[in-house]
Amino acid sequence: MNVRQAWYHKKAASVSVMSWSIRMGMTILLYYFIYRLRNGDAVNGIDFQVAAGGMIIYAIYAGSGYRSLFPIINREFKTGGIEIWINKPINYIQLKIAEVFGKSIPVVLGLILAATAFWVLSGQFPQVGQMPLRIGAGFVLLLLGLLIATLLYALVGISAIWLIDAQPAYLILDKLIMIFGGAYIPIGFFPQTFRLVGELLPTGAAIYVTQLFYPDFLTNFPRFLITQIIWALVLLFVVYRAYISASTKLTVNGG
Amino acid sequence: MSFGLQVLGMFLNNIAFFIIWLFFIKAIGTTNGWGVKEVFGLLSISIFTYGVSHALFGSMNGLDDNVISGSFDSLLTKPKSLYVRILNQRFSVSSLGDLIQGFIGIIIFLIIMQPSIQQVLLLALILPTAILAEVSFGIVTGCIVFWFPQIEGLGNAFFDLIITPSIQPIGLLEGTMRYIYIFVIPAMLLGGFPVEIFTKFSWYTIIIAYLVAIAWWLLSKLVLKRALRRYESANFFGYNV
């Protein structure tokens, strides 16, 4: 499905936006309640606005559709559906990446709109300094993070050819990104060592952007950037090798 | 290898939840009577009910695939109840890992809490409501595919509306939020209510749990019936072994 088709199915995009908004809204409400019980006191230096802001960024990030890469690649490798794509003069992985991101553009725009509405109506936008600089740095980390996440999900999808069922690997990857992205609890709640280890893993590196409003975000930015560049290069090489290897193992039965 | 990987995958997935929510409680401290023990119990019970629901009735989340691929036709041609056929069409292997892990977690929780015989029996009494509510909610969200067949995984996305809060310490919520998680999205039944047997038991909780679970079961039957009116045969030829 391309962007034009995705707009055509605007009902579908609206439902996806609604689903994401409700899910994140539920988690944010839980935190709102907890912070209210604490009389608004920050937890490990993270106040409610920063915690909610991280979750909202995670929802927008996840709405970009990179998670759909696994089920699509996994299914096409398993069912043999891939054969109708690999005889075309275009790289299969690039095609699938373009497909999922194109399809998700209306969802991302809808989520940005929902987030803006939430911040305007609730007045809970994080009050942090150097916002233009943060947004610029966050945008770089967002792009590199999406590249890492996309490569990770593509890799797990390709692994279906060896694992038969790559669902468990997908589950682990998905949960690690959710955990280190602060989908359940802000990464600032984690003990320092655990947080550092998580940030060094590719699943953590994929989602640094959710720390955009954290007090130490700009201090950590150079480290985040270097880690992302290293992981992006490593994964580009690994995915390329895995795809070549999987293609040679692929057998088209015809019919 | 695939079976082992699936069980291992779910095991690691659940361990991750235990770790992060324990970090959470450590960071915020005991809140509204919910501390480490209660959160451990909640996660164990939620994982167990998820395991039972998905191991025995795993196909409730598979309606998307059935309808989109056209294999739903094969279910319609059998004399048994369609509701039952949908539920027992598939056995989820990876959920066995959840079931076992959740069960072990519950045993550990009981050892920690040192409950009376009455509390253990009450836990056994309330667990079926958790499974019924989860399965019924799964059917309702699975039926979304009949209205939005073009959105892949939408049913699962909506099913997450009950799973996400069920592994969060929502038992500490009060007021409107608590009612929402009991009546609108019955996530409280999946872990919060069973834990409350050990913390602030009342018969009112058991009665509400049964009423809500039965209401969701009836709703799921009604939604399935309405959804079927929208289904058109795909003329799909296939077979079941």
In short:
The complex is a heterodimer of chains A (255) and B (241). With 255 residues, chain A is mainly alpha-helical.
Describe the structure.
The complex is a heterodimer of chains A (255) and B (241). In chain A, 73% of the residues lie in helices and 0% in strands. Chain A is mostly helical and 255 residues long. In chain A, α2 (10-37) runs antiparallel to α3 (48-62), α3 packs antiparallel against α6 and α7 (131-158) packs parallel to α12 (217-249). Chain B has 241 residues and is mainly alpha-helical. In chain B, α1 runs parallel beside α6 and α7 packs antiparallel against α11. Chain B is globular, with a radius of gyration of 19 Å. The mean pLDDT of chain B is 84. Chains A and B meet through α2 and α9 of A and α1 and α9 of B.
Shape descriptor of chain A reads: globular
- How would you spell out the order of helices and strands of chain B? HHHHHHHHHHHH
Taking the sheet with the most strands of chain A, its summary is:
none
State the low-pLDDT regions of chain B, or none. Answer: none
Q: Could you tell me the mean pLDDT of chain B?
A: 84
- The average pLDDT score of chain A comes to 85
